[in-house]
Automatic annotation (TrEMBL):
Family of the protein in this entry: Belongs to the aldehyde dehydrogenase family.
InterPro entries xref list: Ald_DH/histidinol_DH, Ald_DH_C, Ald_DH_CS_GLU, Ald_DH_N, Aldehyde_DH_dom
Pfam families given in the database record: Aldedh
Assigned keywords, A-Z: Oxidoreductase
Residue intervals of the Aldehyde dehydrogenase domain: 21-483
Record carries keyword Oxidoreductase: yes
Superkingdom assignment: Bacteria
Active site per the UniProt annotation: E255
Name of the molecule in the record: Aldehyde dehydrogenase family protein
Amino acid sequence: MADTLVAGTIDARMLIGGEWSAASNGALIETLNPATGAVLGTIPDATRSDVDRAVAAAHAAAGAWRRLAPVARAEMVNRLAAAVEARSEEFAALDSAENGSLLTEMRRDIAAGVSALRYFAGLALQVRGETLPGPTGEITYTTRVPFGVVGRIVPFNHPFMFAASKIAAPLVAGNTVVLKPSEFTSLSALLLADVANDILPVGVFNVVTGAGPESGDALVSHPNVHRIAFTGSVATGLAIQRRAAERMVKTVSLELGGKNPLVVFPDADLDTVVDAAVRGMNFTWQGQSCGSLSRNLVHASIYDEFVDRLAERVSALRPGLPDDPASQTGAIVNDRQLAKVLDYVRIGQEEGARLMTGGTRVVDGVLADGLFVRPAVFADVAIDSRLAQEEIFGPVLSVTRFSDEHDAIRMANATQFGLTASVFTQDLGIAHRFAESVDAGYVWVNEVSRHLPGAPYGGVKNSGIGREEDLGELLSYTQTKSIHITYAHGSLR
Ligand code: NAD
């Protein structure tokens, strides 16, 4: 597929039941390179009947797949990881071209996706039950049973990484999967399907592409999809919860947005923390990462110096074409996101926050046809302002002053979100109290952004339900069954 990309346009199809398929009504969505404005090609805009076919194929394949030995499933998932790894460059090139993030970052995403496939394959034998103590002649044990067909819906910001890592657990646990990638970044999921089609049995892994309100909704409301896992925005997550609950009881897990605090106490080393604040904001993905630490809360005694140093560092970040190794930040994924980012820059100014750097679109030179915004820093952001409360999902970092530890925790928790949080201090007491009190599913102390394999990831409050990237994720694709057997009434009693 990457060869076709170089040649000009891709005319992609969906993988349904091992066959490459157009939308039943022929509808297409154009996919664009946000860094150049060039048309990359088209993907099918799946209809409800396409989703029905995909779920039917997954349903038909589910029985044989769950009856396989777990190690046999794991072996295929490991083969998939190896086959993807061998084509890493193609995957990275597709993701970078379609979502505008730096090629160097997308290479890391491919490696992370491959490693997640291997991680869950390695856990296959951990999907097991328990034996319960009971009276002689009776035994009760539990088994873990897969759901059947899992509907997996993922966003645009890490296209391959999510496509690969989010199908690993359900497949290893014995479910079949229908994946719906973002309509803005579907190509690498389709290439993954292409690679998987030579390895997995027909119907075990299906990909439908298209606009969320039709194809995503059809998947969520389908009567044969009992387990839905969603990564994306709060608004869509809420819509999915409502829709899933309309006619049936379904198990839904949600990985949603964040407005994550990075809190700086006066004893932190300023050079280290300014560097961390830049890394933690994920400017290399244009801030488009759920875990981005987009609110810096800084103690009053170091506030002015922190703001000046941060603004200087951020203003030096160089927007550039994603495949140029000198670029430090890439393109925003689409027009809608670009408009949203620029809108929040205007809102921030209207709310009285101080724009220290950036926030303007790049309109000249080789970037003129792309969707590039200079990374922005706002200082003096009021904690109850929209800039501090709403997820922008773009390169806009806000800084707010706090006076004491109590104030810092109050501000850290003063949003609807609770995904990640970071604190910089040398004081063990402050670090522990912060980690205990902050509303977040993942907390860093003197660190940002790092995820260790196997550490549960997910949010509290409106940032989501459930944890992923760990054994718990694997088990969440099963339901526990208790089996009681009475087996003897003989002389041994
Ligand atoms: P989005 O909610 O707009 O779309 C996500 C997916 O949902 C897409 O595939 C879309 O087509 C689909 N969709 C849209 N409407 C739907 C509907 N009614 N029913 C079913 N599916 C529907 O999100 P986005 O703009 O692609 O991604 C950005 C958001 O994702 C941000 O809020 C970000 O924080 C969040 N995110 C969270 C995590 C996490 O792990 N917590 C990771 C990455 C991104």
